[in-house]
Amino acid sequence: MAGGTNKLSDTSLRKMVGKGERFAGFYADGDGLSVKVSKAGILTWYFTYRVGGRETNSQRLKLGNYPDLSIKAAREKRDQCRAWLAEGKNPKHQLKVKTHEALSPVTVREALEYWIREDATHRRANVEKHVEQLNKHIFPYIGDYPLAMCETRHWLECFSRIRSEYPVAAGYVLQMCKQALKYCRTHNYAVSNALDDLTPIDVGKKQEKRDRVHTRHELADIWRESQGWKFKPYYAALLHLLVVFGCRTQELRLSTISEWDLQEGIWMVPKAHSKSGVKILRPIPAFIRPYVAALIEQHRHTGLLLGEIKKPEAVSQWGRGIYKRLGHSEPWTLHDIRRTFSTTLNDMGIAPHVVEQLLGHTLGGVMAVYNRSQYMPEKLDALNKWIDRLSLVADNHENIVLLKA
After folding, report:
1. Which residues contact 214 (CB under 8 A, 6 or more apart)?
2. How far apart are CA 357 and CA 377, in angstroms?
3. Residues 6 or more apart from 337 whose CB is under 8 A from it?
4. Which one of 7, 103, 140, 342 has the fewest CB atoms closer than 10 angstroms to its CB?
5. Sign of dihedral through CA atoms 231, 233, 234, 238?
6. According to the 3-state scheme, what is the secondary structure of the chain?
């Protein structure tokens, strides 16, 4: 190299091994790298540098012994130390951290659990589902692998097992793991780019976007039976409130009694229960307050609005089977109620930003930055009109049934 670096060679170094009485002393290779031959003939690599300019004393950093640390490896360490110096970092500290990482590498399990503990627990309502998926699909297979040594092919083997039964879920697990590894990188906990180039379509398939909206007949059945005795109390209450508020199932499934202020007429969904990670405020229409009050009184000892917390899988499975119990010919899910809520309110002329806030979506663009209004009067008016529409649809359907009878 230019500047007189790389002065030593393997041939010259081998001649010095074990011959300290003849070669004892320091021999420079260039750019701060030198080798010391001890009186016992042991060769040790050192990097000499200054922190703070020529006015400061030089420091000598031990890199390792030759031939365990080859001349090529020693030069690579020297170049790394010079790069750290250029970044304003002390090579002694950086080398200690790097050595520790090499001897005690962060495993896949440790990295993902770090994300769960430091981030997901505080910002995701469905963190239990994440933990369950990792325990089932990732940890048993690559959990103990050093993260830095876990290649893309190792991850793909895990996703392949998921895809065989749950192709859509495989994409979800990939997205979760990518987010976890990105969090570890940005917080300097561990580094892996093994998943960067993968997309859900590479490991499974994307969930098809549904456009299912209930017919007036179906909506009438759902509204009527959510107030009847066809379903168990937990699910009847869940269904009834889903229809009224157009909310996500997890917002009700996790809802605590303390969220419901009947005196002020406000339901406050905390950030921890919100998919978007923001607090959601919804007015409680007068029509539904007695119903909510009864649930609170009945379940006060549990602290939960619905009296217990059922797993999301159980609720989803129950929701997929409702259409059969109501005699509907086409399948639908609980999320389709939310889509029907949104579509109908927009068709009724409710302002889009009011509908979006009722749904718990964040406003986009400039409105997200400057507009902090909760539009509570407008949201209450929208919910009252929605309940009137539900009652009208149910009454008309009842009259048609009676006429046919």
Report:
1. 222, 332, 336, 337, 340
2. 12
3. 214, 222, 239, 242, 243, 246
4. 103
5. positive
6. CCCCCCCCCHHHHHHHCCCHHHHCEEEEEECCEEEEECCCCCEEEEEEECCCCCCCCCEEEEEEEECCCCHHHHHHHHHHHHHHHHCCCCHHHHHHHHHHHHHCCCEHHHHHHHHHHHHHHHHCCCHHHHHHHHHHHCHHHHCCCEHHHCCHHHHHHHHHHHHCCCHHHHHHHHHHHHHHHHHHHHCCCCCCCCCCCCCHHHHCCCCCCCCCCCCHHHHHHHHHHCCCCCCCHHHHHHHHHHHHHCCCHHHHHCCEHHHEECCCCEEEECHHHCCCCCCEEEECCCCCHHHHHHHHHHHCCCCECCCCCCCHHHHHHHHHCHHHHCCCCCCCCHHHHHHHHHHHHHHCCCCHHHHHHHHCCCCCHHHHHHCCCCCHHHHHHHHHHHHHHHHHHHHHHHHHHHHHC
In this structure, the number of other CB atoms found within 10 A of the CB of residue 206 comes to 11
Q: Is the distance from CB of 75 to CB of 8 less than 8 angstroms?
A: no
CA contacts within 13 A on the Cβ side of 217: 8
Nearest to 130 by CA among 144, 116, 145, 109: 116
Q: Which two tokens stand for residue 25?
A: 């002393």
Q: Judge contact between 62 and 78, C-beta under 8 A.
A: no
**Taking Cα atoms as reference points, which of 225, 217, 294 lies closest to residue 260?**
294
Residue 81 φ then ψ, to 5°: -65, -40
Asked whether 76 and 63 are in contact (CB, 8 A), the reply is no
Length of the chain: 405
| Contact call for residues 279 and 267 (beta carbons, < 8 A) | no
Q: Tell me the per-residue pLDDT of 230-261, one tens digit each, with 9 for 90 and over.
A: 899 999 999 999 999 999 999 999 999 999 99
pLDDT tens digits, 15-60 = 999 888 889 999 999 999 999 999 989 999 999 998 877 778 889 9
- Is there a contact between 342 and 359 (Cβ–Cβ < 8 Å)? yes
182: which residues sit within 8 A by CB, 6+ positions away?
A: none
pLDDT of res. 395: 82
Residue pair 30/3 in contact (Cβ under 8 Å)? The answer is yes
State residue 207's pLDDT score: 63
